[in-house]
Write a structure and sequence with these properties.
Elements: H1 2-28, E1 34-38, H2 45-61, E2 65-69, H3 76-83, E3 91-93, H4 98-105, E4 117-133, H5 141-150, E5 155-159, H6 165-177, E6 181-185, H7 189-198, E7 203-207, H8 208-216, E8 220-225, E9 251-259, H9 264-279, H10 281-289, E10 293-294, H11 298-320
Parallel strand pairs: 1-2, 1-3, 5-6, 5-7
Antiparallel strand pairs: 4-7, 4-8, 4-9, 4-10
């Protein structure tokens, strides 16, 4: 019995450093610069929001917070990079909605959105908006549906990337109203908007944040948007719900993550600080005027959203017959 107790005591002493390591690491964090991986090129909405966040987090944490743009493969390259980073609180990720879509869109995205990441908080969201070029005779969603149904082979439909929520909103509309669209996927929302402005493609969709200024300037026609309510400075643009699509609510949402295994104390601190940054009245007003609603609501709410959206997008991708890349 004495030997057994002695052996147990030795094992406990050997285990103590490992048990103490995580709390100690969390208490000393941060003591060097942090990086936020943005899995897209500079200048897009995700990059802009990440930089607003970084500028606020840096003084709050007492360390520089730098943005690392790692674009490619619809966001998969940067997201996979963040998934493989050490779970020490020094590498974070700000992706868009492709984070929850790509697991079903790609055979090997390089990450699992549930297994590989610790959700911190949603940051901002923008409804998707169906658009027509200024020279188009299409003025509302009924016009679009009528034209699409009578166009042999289907109309070309510009979107900001395969698997983006605007792309999938177009697919969903086609399924519900029984017509086909020829999807024209661009590598960014900016290029999608440019194609619509130039008349290269007559109709398409983006997140509202990506086309808000062009809509306000009369350069693009907003036919309908997918948010739950009308947008405050676009009161003439109906929601899909108002047009009879009762559950047609989709958003391009941006959120903050750490690699799985990051200590809870660090995740909770980041959630508090990010909520304070994004909840600032000036930031909220700035984001709203750019087409975003700010909604920093913490780890649990974000985890619940991921759990809902991953299977929902998987089902839509299967119904649309989209072949995995």
């Amino acid at each position: 019995m004495t030997q057994t107790r002695a052996g147990m005591g030795r094992r406990l002493m050997l285990a103590l450093p490992a048990l103490i390591a995580v709390p100690a690491r969390a208490q000393s964090w941060p003591n060097r610069p942090l990086r936020i991986v943005v899995p897209f090129s500079p200048g897009g909405p995700t990059d802009v929001v990440a930089r607003i966040l970084a500028n606020g987090l840096s003084p709050a944490l007492g360390q520089p917070v730098v943005i690392e743009n790692r674009g490619g493969a619809g966001g998969n390259i940067g997201t996979a990079l963040a998934a493989r980073a050490a779970p020490d609180g020094y590498t974070l990720l700000v992706p868009s909605s492709g984070f929850v879509v790509n697991a079903s869109l790609f055979r090997h995205p390089g990450y699992d959105p549930i297994r590989d990441f610790a959700p911190i908080t949603e940051l901002a969201a923008s409804p998707d908006v169906f658009l027509a070029g200024a020279a188009s005779s299409i003025r509302n969603l009924d016009d679009l549906i009528a034209r699409a149904r009578t166009t042999p082979g289907g109309m070309h439909f510009a979107n900001p990337g395969s698997g983006s929520t605007p792309h999938l909103a177009g697919e969903r509309l086609g399924i519900l109203r029984e017509f086909s669209l020829i999807q024209v996927a661009h590598s960014s929302a900016a290029l999608c908007v440019q194609a619509l402005l130039a008349g290269n493609t007559e109709i398409g969709a983006t997140a509202l944040a990506s086309s808000h200024s062009q809509i306000k300037g009369g350069l693009l026609h907003a036919l309908a948007q997918t948010g739950p309510d009308r947008w405050f400075d676009l009161p003439e643009v109906p929601t899909m719900r108002e047009l009879g699509f009762t559950d047609f609510v989709t958003e391009t949402f941006l959120s903050l993550y750490a690699p799985a295994g990051t200590p809870n104390a660090i995740v909770e601190r980041l959630a508090r600080e990010a909520t304070a940054v994004m909840g600032n009245a000036e930031t909220r007003a700035r984001m709203r005027n750019a087409g975003f609603v700010v909604r920093p609501d913490g780890p649990e709410a974000l985890a619940n959203r991921i759990a809902r959206e991953v299977p929902a997008w998987r089902d839509l991708i299967a119904r649309a017959g989209i072949v995995q890349e």
